[in-house]
Specification:
Helix content is about 50%, strand content about 15%. The protein has ten helices and ten strands. It has helices at about 15-30, 40-50, 65-80, 80-100, 105-115, 230-265, 275-305, 310-335, 345-355, 365-380, and strands at about 120-125, 140-145, 145-155, 165-170, 180-185, 190-195, 205-215, 220, 265, 270. The protein has a four-stranded mixed beta sheet with strand order 1-4-5-8. It has a four-stranded antiparallel beta sheet with strand order 2-3-7-6, with no helix packed on it.
Length: about 375
């Protein structure tokens, strides 16, 4: 069990500490540390369990508690990468509806998401538009009371198992990012298909989507015409810090495994932990985890105070994901040959952490964001 003294930090209220304790106890009884070959079925099962357990309510709605979301993702990440994924995607996939949906849209979709009865997906990335969202090509043409979608989306989490997708498409009100709108597309809508299921090193539902004259009611638009990019960025702003929290959970899990290994592995008539080189490595791992946690929960606390967190969230995501990769790598090294055996805890973590350095803004993009915010603050005030 990881050290939970950080919950005493002033970033948290008592309700956050209670949430962490209760979720950890629930996860021990309800979340398997590994999953079988049918990842789709396991993911659906986890969504249902999370809904029945009452945890998904923390990821849905227009008054989200960022610290609660981060605590949940960190805790689930420590138990199971797939459980963290299942929770996060329910929030991210329905986030646009939570933040900008009409009362009718919110009533139709959000209660089912909260209960774990409907799986959501966030469809933003395209083959030629990942970090550069303004390069989006998927089109949305208004025809009377309907919208016709054409194009593709890729790297879409929950692709293939989602009940609905929030799709961002170029609607043409203005050039670049100002001409994008968001739409809800239900699975099974004519003209919408799963073009390809994508297999990745840490298995989870992922797909390429195709829209071919996919006709949906105009009432399925989320937010105003041309406001889709803003809606997408607002959604990502909520959940970017939580990606860092998930990485923190992975790192804590690796640290637990490394401590157990170091104190029980016999070598040259002593334990691995008796070697100074091991102690140095453990110290660095602990330092990396604590410094990441401080950045994560500073950003989460700051957002909950209603402040801008563009720079702080970018710092948290960069430090926590890169740091977790280092911690997990060190844990694998400590396990030696056993560390690269399939489905060992540290081997699984090694695969799971890698994508967190890419999705919801790659490390390099976070560096650009941090520098941009610093230069903006440094610029002399205009007169």
């Amino acid at each position: 069990m990881s050290d939970t003294q950080y919950l005493d930090w002033p970033f948290f209220e008592e309700r956050h500490r209670t949430l962490a304790r209760e979720l950890d106890a629930w996860a021990k009884d309800n979340v398997p540390h590994d999953h079988g070959p049918d990842v789709d079925a396991e993911c659906k099962s986890l969504v249902k369990k999370l809904g029945q357990g009452g945890w998904l309510k923390h990821a849905v709605g227009d008054r989200l508690d960022t610290r609660a979301i981060c605590i949940i993702r960190e805790t689930l990440g420590r138990h199971s990468g797939l459980a963290d994924f299942a929770f996060a995607m329910q929030g991210l996939g329905s986030g646009a509806i939570s933040l900008a949906g009409t009362p009718e849209q919110r009533e139709r979709y959000l209660p089912r998401v909260t209960r774990g009865e409907a799986i959501s997906a966030f469809a933003l990335s395209e083959p030629e538009a990942g970090s550069d969202v303004a390069a989006m090509q998927c089109s949305a043409k208004v025809e009377g009371e309907h919208v016709v979608l054409n194009g593709e989306k890729t790297w879409i989490s929950n692709g293939g198992i989602a009940d609905f997708y929030v799709v961002f498409a170029r609607s043409g009100e203005a050039p670049g990012a100002r001409g994008i709108s968001a739409f809800i597309v239900d699975a099974g809508t004519p003209g919408f298909e799963i073009a390809e299921r994508i297999n990745v090193i840490a298995p989870h539902p992922l797909a390429r989507l195709r829209f071919s004259n996919c006709r949906i009611p105009l009432t399925q638009r989320v937010g105003a015409a041309g406001e889709g990019f803003k809606v997408a960025m607002r959604t990502l702003d909520v959940f970017r810090t939580s990606v860092a929290a998930a990485a923190l959970g992975f790192a804590r899990c690796a640290m637990d495994a490394a401590m157990e290994r170091a104190t029980t592995r016999k070598m040259f008539n002593q334990t691995l932990a008796d070697f100074q080189i091991t102690q140095t490595k453990l110290a660095q791992m602990a330092l990396t985890i604590d410094s990441s946690a401080l950045l994560v929960y500073r950003a989460a606390w700051q957002r909950d105070q209603g402040r801008n967190v563009t720079r702080e969230a970018a710092m948290a995501k960069l430090a926590a994901t890169e740091g977790a990769q280092q911690v997990i790598d060190a844990a694998v090294q400590m396990f030696g040959g056993l560390g690269v055996v399939s489905e060992q805890t540290v081997e699984r973590l090694y695969r799971e952490i890698r994508s967190l350095r890419i999705y919801e803004g790659a490390t390099e993009v976070q560096q650009l964001i941090i520098a941009r915010e610093m230069l903006k603050a440094h610029a002399p005030a205009s007169h």
